[in-house]
Design goal:
This protein has 15 helices and 13 strands. The protein has 382 residues and is an alpha/beta fold. The relative contact order is 0.12.
């Protein structure tokens, strides 16, 4: 049985996006009979731990250094390692790759010095650039490779959604498993400021956020329901008319579902993805979170954008149709195909090398000399 390890982390400040992407690929691999192991520091985030436990995905402590990672790969019998981290020292993946194991690295633009056989950049328009890669490496880029969990892919509608005319729009607002930058109360207040009717479900990552949201006074025709992080988020989204979320990993899930979305930019590394998504008309933009916390031009603009989305079901439907067409949900399949092909290719190379060594010994040649003669077409027949 092929075995694949995942080196990714989660935490109150780093969020859960890297883990969610890896879980999406792990689900696809497990469905194909591949054994998977997570080597992760989950930062005590209960929701992150539950994602692995509920799926029966084995979880091991994150190795401290490259020697520990190489040892873990050997102990678990890994054929390949998947890395998804902004913090992982490049030497760790390189050390695993040097053992002959296949390495697949998930990146967001910058390769961060990581050495891999396969690079995945699932971001919008990522295919338009061509960074320099290690010899023999391949890079798969663009929304065709968006990593989406099974629960999302199963809920993708067969066609774009119709306009929900004549009903109070259902809104779902969420900001990752930790909402590290406290966006939920800000969005709750902006929704109320629209003066439009809505039935909103807002995810509060902790008790403090819940208390802030419950203190938001709604107007007539407005309902603000506060819930804890839930594994049924894809189900809530599938039944929603509008989503409000941070720009990031979840954006591609919203597009796959064909769900009209309003995005807020929370951190600087979201700038490029946010701007491209808005420019393509695949989602509406609310702006940069810090500028939305207090009254001002940015907050007024965000209120206007939300009001238009809440009161115009036809415009929402058009936005959702463009989103639906952008992401087909087959990214995990394509990436699994590429990873398994790379693993099998590496295994073939190892078998050929073993046969070459055997032939060299049989003819009394040292291995390097045999390789030179083989390349020149002068190696004796075995």
């Amino acid at each position: 049985m092929i075995a694949v390890g995942f080196r990714c982390d989660a935490g109150p400040r780093t969020g859960v996006g890297h883990l969610v992407r890896c879980v999406a690929l792990a689900e696809e691999l497990v469905a194909r009979g591949v054994a998977v192991h997570f080597l992760s520091d989950l930062g005590g985030v209960t929701w992150a731990q539950a994602q692995l436990a509920q799926r029966g995905l084995p979880w091991h402590p994150a190795p401290f250094d490259q020697a520990g990672l190489v040892a873990a790969a050997a102990r678990l019998g890994l054929d390949a390692l998947v890395t998804d981290s902004y913090e992982l020292p490049p030497g760790q993946a390189a050390a695993v790759r040097a053992t002959g194991r296949t390495v697949l690295t998930i990146v967001d633009g910058n390769l961060l010095g990581q050495s891999a056989d396969v690079y995945i950049d699932q971001n919008l328009d990522a295919e338009l650039v061509a960074p320099e890669l290690p010899p023999g490496a391949v890079r798969l880029a663009g929304l065709d490779y968006a990593l989406l969990r099974t629960a999302v892919r199963e809920r993708r509608p067969a066609a774009p959604r119709d306009a929900a005319v004549g009903r109070t729009p259902k809104v779902v607002a969420f900001f990752g498993g930790t909402d590290a930058f406290r966006a939920a109360p800000v969005i709750g207040r902006l929704l109320v400021a629209t003066g439009a009717a809505f039935d909103a479900t807002v995810v509060a990552a902790d008790g403090g956020l819940r208390d802030e949201l419950l203190a938001v006074a709604t107007l007539e025709g407005q309902r603000l329901r506060v819930i804890a992080p839930t594994d049924d988020l894809p189900g809530l989204l599938a039944d929603a008319d509008l989503a409000v979320s941070a720009s990031g990993t979840s954006t591609w899930e919203l597009l796959c579902l064909g769900l009209p979305a309003a995005l807020v930019r929370v951190v600087d590394n979201q700038i490029l993805g946010y701007e491209r998504t808005i420019a393509r008309g695949l989602a509406a933009g609310l702006g940069h979170l810090p500028a939305l916390r207090a009254p001002g031009v940015e907050a007024d603009t965000a209120v206007r954008v939300l009001r238009d989305l809440l009161t115009d079901p036809v415009a929402r439907a058009a936005l959702g149709a463009r989103a639906w067409a952008a992401v087909d949900g087959r990214g995990p399949e394509r990436i699994a195909n590429a990873l398994l092909a790379a693993i099998r290719s590496a295994a073939r190379h190892r078998r050929v090398a073993a046969l070459d060594r055997h032939a060299a010994v049989a003819h009394g040649w040292d291995y390097d000399g045999w390789q030179e003669m083989h390349a020149a077409g002068r190696a004796p027949a075995v």
